[in-house]
Amino acid sequence: MLVILVKILKQLITLILDHRNRQQIAYGVAFSAFFGLLPFNFLLFVLLLFILCLFKFNLSSIFFGALIFKLLRVALDPVSDFLGYFLLVTCTPLVHFWTFLYNSPVFPWLNFNHTLQLGSFVLATLLFFPTYYGFLQFLDYFRQTLKPRLENSKLLTVLKASPVFHWAFKVKDWIA
After folding, report:
1. Distance (Å, rounded) from C-alpha 26 to C-alpha 24?
2. Gap between the terminal Cα atoms of the chain
3. Between the CA of residue 145 and those of 30, 133, 138, 140, 173, what are the distances in Å?
4. Closest CA to 139 of 32, 33, 34, 12
5. Which of 7, 30, 33, 104 has the fewest CB atoms within 10 Å, measured from its CB?
């Protein structure tokens, strides 16, 4: 399991350092908000996987982003719950719409009648484009400013000269 996580992290670092797939990486991180913020629901998970297969997202960035959003979920759950409560209970013009959806054959299986599920879905939808554009800006900043600084840093030259660094790449080649 640890080897798989290391491979995913290595692929993500390679993609960030590479000068292609900029939009794919940003879309993957933005789409990972749905995997990271939503409570697990099998039908919704299958629908998200279907969308994942339809469009060209970067899987390493999705795994990385889902990990980050899972960590942020602890802080964002009260916001999601409040947002879901507002949409389900407080916003009276939508009561008939939620009743219609709940009485339909498929939508009750998505658990949108729960405040946390609905609020997390709406929050992930609202965060999609800001996350996409924010990560695009981060990639540009990293590739133009931070990458040259890191390549010329003393820490990286010391790490490259260390025997542990060479041993780690021998093990990586052996595992692959």
Report:
1. 5
2. 14
3. 23, 18, 10, 8, 30
4. 12
5. 104
Residue spans of alpha helices (H) in the chain: 2-17, 22-37, 42-54, 59-85, 95-103, 115-141, 147-151, 154-161, 163-175
CA distances in angstroms from 69 to 36, 75, 107, listed in the order given = 5, 10, 25
| Single-letter amino acid code for the residue at 120 | S
Residues 46-88 have pLDDT tens digits of 999 999 999 888 888 898 899 899 999 999 999 999 999 999 9
pTM for the complete prediction? 0.81
The alpha carbon of 119 is separated from its chain's Cα centroid by a whole number of angstroms, namely 17
Cβ(68)–Cβ(31) below 8 Å = no
